[in-house]
Design brief:
2 domains; 6 helices; Protein Binding, DinI Protein, Chain A; rod-shaped; two-stranded parallel ribbon; 66% helix; 5% strand; 176 residues
Length: 176
């Protein structure tokens, strides 16, 4: 993909008849200025820590059950041993399922992230689109994205502060 973008860029800039205006933004920098983004990250962090505590508790319980089983193993009948092994296996399955349901690719953390972050990303994208139209820009690249690599970028083309102002915030006032 990068290769095609670079080739398209070279072709467009090679022909004088196609004078195009480029700019870039740093979405990471922009998002740091948005209180709602910080709030969303904080909410996700709280949920993640709570779920991780539960995961840790589940696996600690399994570990405790296994150690107790090992200590009692010589005293147990075959039937009792099988029952305890099955209890441990079942508990481990439940713990792994809980972990997957919270942290898996379609888990609660991912779903929460989409629910909280997507509206913010849309808001930023709309502000970028409005600035592009008002400044008659043809392309705006994201400097913080790994998908598009820039070897050199003049700061005169950075419209990140314009986006922050358009969103109603003051640039350079990042509170970490």
């Amino acid at each position: 993909m990068k290769k095609y973008l670079f080739i398209a860029f070279l072709l467009c800039t090679s022909f004088g008849a196609f004078a195009q205006k480029f700019a870039y933004v740093d979405t990471e920098y922009i998002l740091k200025h948005l209180p709602e983004y910080k709030s969303a990250l904080s909410q996700l962090d709280v949920a993640s820590k709570q779920w991780q505590q539960q995961v840790d508790q589940n696996f600690s319980e399994i570990d405790r059950m296994y150690k107790a089983y090992q200590a009692d193993q010589v005293l147990l009948t075959d039937d009792m041993r099988k029952r305890r092994e099955n209890e441990i296996i079942e508990k481990e399955k439940q713990a792994k399922e809980f972990q997957r349901s919270k942290f898996g690719p379609d888990g609660d953390l991912f779903q929460s992230r989409v629910k909280l972050i997507k509206p913010i990303q849309y808001k930023v994208a709309e502000a970028i689109k409005q600035i592009a139209k008002s400044k008659y820009l043809d392309f705006i690249f994201d400097k913080s994205s790994e998908a598009t690599m820039m070897i050199y970028a003049s700061s005169s083309y950075d419209v990140s502060n314009d986006v922050i102002v358009k969103l109603g915030y003051k640039p350079g006032t990042v509170n970490n």
